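A further point concerns the way the authors explain their paired sequence and structure data. Each protein is reduced to its one-letter sequence and a matching series of backbone shape codes. An entry of this sort, consisting of the sequence and the corresponding backbone structure tokens, reads as follows:
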Amino acid sequence: MNELRNFRIALSSRFRPSFTYMGKKLGRRLCLFFICIVMTPILISGCSHFNEGFQAKSTFEEANDLFNQGNYKASLNVYEQIMGEYPSTADRVLFEMGIIHAYPKNEQKDFQKSLECFHKLIQDYPGSAYRQDSEMMIFYINNVTLKDQTIATQQARIETLLHELEGKENDIAALQKQIVALEQKIFAYATQKGRIDKILVEKQARRLMLISKGEVIKTYKIALGGNPVGPKERQGDNKTPEGTYVIDARNKGSQYHLSLHISYPNEKDKKRAKELGVSPGGNIMIHGIKNGFSWVGDSHTEVDWTKGCIAVTDEEIEEISRLAPNGTIVEIRP
């Protein structure tokens, strides 16, 4: 023992080379031997915790290695062994076991067992160096447990609401089917009677509506000119016009599948351009997607890509063309 060796050295420096015992002078070595014999029981008693801690060191290292390897159950078993063989290290063992039971990566973590370890440490070893850390761990675990309980309550509420919603979703789906069926009937009736009399475009909403006798019978998503805000003022400004026009021509050989020509510019547009001293431009169409790119489908409406025209899908322009003859009013609103 290093401590015992140091104590012997200290003793040897304090005593003279010879010592009188029962009237006789003893040699230096015999003197030290006597003193050590007398003091050894005291030293052993005083160093018992140190001895146990030193002897348990390798076992603690084994438990720690198992913990680092993720073998938490085996690590706990080693700590229980340490507690049985080295009682003086019990406070440290309890602390380490409490940590393992609460460790997030431990799939068998048990907050209750962790709390039991920390509470036992505080109760049985009030002067332990691990007391303060144990109190902090108790506070932490209680907070985590409270949050888990709150989350569990909220999740249960969500499950209840989802269950209630499932029943309503069936009702909503049934209503949606009825709406679609009615829209199809209205659309079929209107087209059979040839009652499409107006096309309404709402630029901000990016939609085109077919109107029959004041009723909307179908709506389409659209893309506009690359500079969509405000009315068209001049050639090349990439703006879509605003105002009232008519379909006055159509082109089945269009580079954009099929196109319906709009009678832009009207008198108001011409007057504004004249005041600005510019050409109002023209050749504004309702058309499909550029030839060769029909596969884009309705995703083309994700961006305003035309030079001022109004774009729909190829299938949609075919439908609009069938329903809107030349002379159909086209109103374009901001």
Notes: DSSP finds nine helices and ten strands in the chain. The radius of gyration is 46 Å.
